[in-house]
Design a protein that fits this description.
The chain has 352 residues and is mainly alpha-helical. Helices cover 73% and strands 0% of the residues. The chain is built from 18 helices and no strands. It has three domains: 119 residues, Topoisomerase I, Chain A, domain 4 (Orthogonal Bundle), CATH 1.10.132.50; 106 residues, V-type ATP synthase subunit C fold (Up-down Bundle), CATH 1.20.1690; 114 residues.
Length: 352
């Protein structure tokens, strides 16, 4: 829809380039073929799918699953940087709003490493390889921080550092992560609002994502036996449908059944499929099925908006989300193979 593509920006060019990149991602049949292979063979296969440069970079010191993990992380960082680089003007600002979440994710990774006592060297070997220049500052923060408060202080002057500035020094990891989530969504919503009414579909997409995060947080809190007052504090403000009294009612629900009753009152939410996902989660003991269902709904919405608004930020954002999904699926596959899990168990955790 033309009203999305307003203001200075290379809307048509960036959309075309993103669609071309999207077409190069692994198809479902290719992903299933990877499931039949071992780590070394997987490395060779994904090298032909755009990961050769990073695989060659790390092959001198890593092999197997570790080689693939490092290559995946580096390739994703490079890809995000390139996509933002070919966007211009207002389009670049919009795409950057969504891409900023990856920096917040890196901040969480560093916090978790500091909280668990993981050394900067181990962090570099596992998820933040030092060959990637974008990891230099993160590894330095991890190396100089003994506590979560140290890490938060070392991030001062950044958006994520600002998000943690009001926390008590002895606050637990969950509070730091919650603060980062709140700050990211607040900043993202404010940035899109300031861009004008033409970005309402993007705001709706972001607000729906907040709804989904709140549903997952509530289900997790109920399973952990967290009291209603604390559940209320966990909630993210700014949702699309789960807001105001409805959000408070959801936080007060004292069981999954009560929560579902509240959610049934929300418009345009398929509670039947959500209930099925929750039932599967009960049987498995985790929340993977719920997360997968809600993320799938979000991707379907983004794909639809991308098709309906070809000259907009949606094709670019849809490509980035698809790339992240590809990297996550390959990572899950490789980790599962390394752990000796069956193909059925691995596939159950992948989104293909």
């Amino acid at each position: 829809m033309g009203e999305i593509a307003v203001g200075r920006g290379n809307w048509a060019n960036a959309s075309a380039r993103s669609k071309a990149r999207k077409a190069m991602l692994l198809k479902e049949t290719q992903m299933r073929q990877l499931m039949q292979q071992g780590p070394d063979t997987i490395a060779a296969s994904i090298g032909e799918a755009g990961y050769r440069k990073e695989l060659d970079l790390y092959s001198a010191r890593l092999s197997g699953a570790e080689l693939i993990e490092a290559a995946l992380s580096h390739n994703l960082d490079r890809d995000i940087k390139q996509v933002i680089g070919y966007c211009q003007g207002r389009l670049r600002r919009i795409v950057s709003v969504f891409a900023m979440r990856f920096s917040y994710h890196n901040a969480k990774t560093v916090l978790r490493a500091v909280n668990s006592g993981t050394s900067a060297e181990d962090l570099a070997n596992m998820v933040m390889p030092e060959e990637n220049d974008l990891n230099t500052n993160w590894l330095e923060i991890a190396n100089q921080s003994k506590t979560l408060a140290d890490a938060a202080h070392a991030m001062r002057g950044t958006s994520w550092g600002t998000g943690m500035s009001g926390l008590d020094a002895d606050a637990p990891l969950q509070e730091y992560e919650d603060a980062l989530d709140r700050h990211y969504y607040n900043d993202a919503i404010s940035a899109l609002k300031s861009s004008g009414h033409q970005h309402r579909p993007l705001l709706t997409l972001l607000r729906t994502e907040i709804d989904h995060r709140n549903i997952i947080n509530l289900l997790r809190a109920l399973r952990q036996g967290i009291q209603a007052e604390q559940r209320t504090e966990l909630m993210l403000e700014g949702g699309q449908r789960l807001r105001g009294n409805m959000l408070r009612n959801a936080a007060q629900a004292d069981s999954e059944e009560s929560l579902i009753e509240v959610l049934r009152r929300l418009p345009n939410l398929d509670t039947t499929r959500l209930e099925e996902a929750i039932q599967t989660a009960r049987e498995s003991g985790g929340l993977d099925s719920v997360v997968s269902y809600l993320e799938g709904e979000q991707r379907d919405s983004l794909r639809r908006l991308s098709h309906l608004n070809p000259l907009s930020a949606f094709p670019v954002i849809y490509y980035l989300e698809s790339k992240v999904l590809e990297v996550r699926n390959i990572r899950l596959l490789v980790r599962g193979k390394a752990a000796g899990l069956s193909d059925e168990v691995i596939e159950a955790h992948m989104s293909i």
